[in-house]
Amino acid sequence: MLNIFQAIKSMYHMKIKFPMIGGVREAQANALQARKCYIEAIKREKKRGAEEPSETKDSNKRGKDPVASLEPDKETSAAVQPVEELLTIELTPSDPGKDLEGINPGVITYHLNLDPGAKRHIKEIQFPEWHSNVVLVPKPSGKLRMCIDSRDLNNACPKNFYPLHRIDQLVDSTSGCELLSMMDASEEYHQIMLAPEDHKRASFITSDGMFCYIAMPFRLKNAGATYQRLVDKIFRPQTGRNMEVYVDDMLVRSKEARKYVEDLEETFAVLREYKLKLNPEKCAFGVSGGRFLVFMVTQRGIEANPVNIKAILDMRPHTNINEVQRLTGRIAVLNRFISKSAEKVLPFFKTLRKVKNFEWTEECQQAFEELKAYLARLSLSVKLIPGDTHYLYLSSTSQAISSVLV
């Protein structure tokens, strides 16, 4: 019959596809009905006196029925391993986070919070869990991070609009301090436990079988907002006083060197209380300056990160819209250091309007060369001191207007 219809079957997905007038049609089997048929077939084999494996006999000696454990309305026997297995993140001995215990679930737990309207869609697919593929994402250090391709799952989850802090305000508050301590959490997302009811939704396929996360995985929607909620909660007494936190980037700032040890002791007391582990490779203690977020903060003030400047200086004349968009994005990071930035980048935005007829004009090339020359001599941004007299400097042209406090 399959040959007559020229059908192609997939036992794993329980589907068949066959050509019809107007296109290819698809037939989906009923997973629940197939499961019942499978259970019934096992029972019939048992009645025929088929010889059971030794493991099954051992389980029957203990009074457990492995067949009954497959029934949807009965609990799974302890002697039979379920199809799903919980993934425990094993770190190498050289990894500083090998003994991660995780944040107490009573403090914070990650919930997927699936849209109720999407649950029906999940049932229509007739898969008991969300299945994702494994994706290896390169890290800046050159190592690989294992993630799951959770795009479909993310589409089914509403966005958590928990606010993130303004980067400019955080950086302004850190400049002018005598000593700084930059800290970074080790496998930060994996330190938050995943809600038990969501284990089956964070599953993924491997050659060794099906696994699921018991900790919050990377690349899930709202994972960053959940982590920000955690650090805001546990560091609330210190935030704005001697510490600034943006997701997993933590900075302890001591306005006076004599209070440095006291500030660190307070911070580490919180870390020990909530079992939050750090990555020593990304931590720096007792320094006068360093990189925080995308800026360089020192006692003198705020400087642009040389890496961000070099990224623009190394760029060549652009040949398509995507390259111009990449340029404007890199300029936005340095915007606070560029005087009359709107006027300097105006030719680039004019080019972006011509999506179909892209042209890198002489005006764009001249603006690009002038921008490179300007970035080579960027000035220092100084924190405003309360009580001092400041002036608002305005500059305007026929196409742009800008202002700065001096």
Automatic annotation (TrEMBL):
Domain Reverse transcriptase: 137-293
UniProt-listed InterPro entries: DNA/RNA_pol_sf, Rev_trsase/Diguanyl_cyclase, RNA-dir_DNA_polymerase, RT_dom
Region (Disordered): 46-81
Family annotation (CDD domains): RT_LTR
Any Pfam family matching the protein: RVT_1
Transmembrane segments: none
Biased composition (Basic and acidic residues): 46-76
UniProt-listed Gene3D superfamilies: 3.30.70.270, HIV Type 1 Reverse Transcriptase, subunit A, domain 1
Coiled-coil residues: none
Record's protein name: Retrovirus-related Pol polyprotein from transposon
